[in-house]
C-alpha cells in the first residue's frame, strides 16, 4: 500500500501510540494499591484504626488498600509524605489528635496541617481513662485531687508520648485542678503502662483500648474518664467533668488525603470510607478498642480539625510542652 504523505502517517502513528500509553497509565493507576500511611508504630490505636478500615475500604472501592507505618516526630513524617504526594487518591493518611496538637507544639512544620490536606472523614473518637496503681491512696477524683495538692510534685504521670492527646489530657487536668504532677515520658504507651502496672509510676492517662483489660483485672484503678459524661462500658467510673466542670479530652482518628484532590475524587473516597466505617465488622473492631465510630462529612471534619488546633494551642502554651 502506497502512502502519498509519509509525514502525515508518522504523526498519526505517534498520536495513536501516545493515546495507548495514556490509557495504559490510567489502567495502571486504577490497579495501583491505595496506601494509608500511619505515623505511629504497628500495634498502637492509630495503626489498629487504619487496619480496621483498610480491608473494608478496599472492598468498597474495588481496589487493594494497604497500611504502611511511618512512625516518628509525633506523626509528622507520615503527614509530610502525604502532604507532598500526588492528589490522585492513591496515598492517604490515617492521622490522630496530634495532627492538631503539632500545629502549636512544633515551632515549624514542613507542611500546613490545614492547607496541605484534604479532610475525608473522622473514623472514630475515644476518651481516655485516668488510671492509678492500686497502691495510690485515693479511690475517687476528690480524694486524688486532695492527695495531689497535699503532696505537690511527689506523684508522677507516665506519658506514652510527649505532645500526645493523653499527655495533654494530663496537662489540662493539672491546669484545671491546680495540682502539680511530674511527667515521666516514655517512648510508647506499652512501656509507660507497664511501669504503672509495676508501681514504678503512680498515674497515667491511657486510651481505653490500652487500659480496659488491666482495669477489669483489678491491676489498675480507674479514677475518671475524659469524656463529658460517664461511659456505658464503665458506669461506675465518674467523668472528670463531675469534679472539674468543663473538662473534656478525647482522642480522634481521621482520614486525610493531600490537598488539591479533585472534588469528585474527594466525594468518592470519602463516601467509600464512611460506608466502611458504618459496616458491621469495622464498627465491631472500632468498638472493641473502646472507641466510637463516626464517619462524618469532609466539611464537618475539616471544621472540627481547625477548632481542635485552636483548643489544643491553649493547653500546649500552659504546659510548656516541647517536641521530643
Care to describe what's here?
This protein has 324 residues and is α/β, with parallel strands linked by helices. The protein folds into two domains: 27-126 and 251-319, D-Maltodextrin-Binding Protein, domain 2; 127-242, Periplasmic binding protein-like II (D-Maltodextrin-Binding Protein, domain 2, 3-Layer(aba) Sandwich). Helix content is 45%, strand content 19%. The protein contains eleven helices and ten strands. The chain has helices at 6-31, 45-61, 76-83, 98-105, 141-150, 165-177, 189-197, 208-216, 263-277, 280-288, 298-319, and strands at 34-38, 65-69, 91-96, 117-132, 156-159, 182-185, 203-207, 221-225, 250-258, 292-293. Strands 1, 2, 3, 4, 5, 6, 7, 8, 9 and 10 form a ten-stranded mixed β-sheet that branches. Helix 2 runs antiparallel to helix 10 and helix 6 (165-177) crosses helix 11. It is globular.
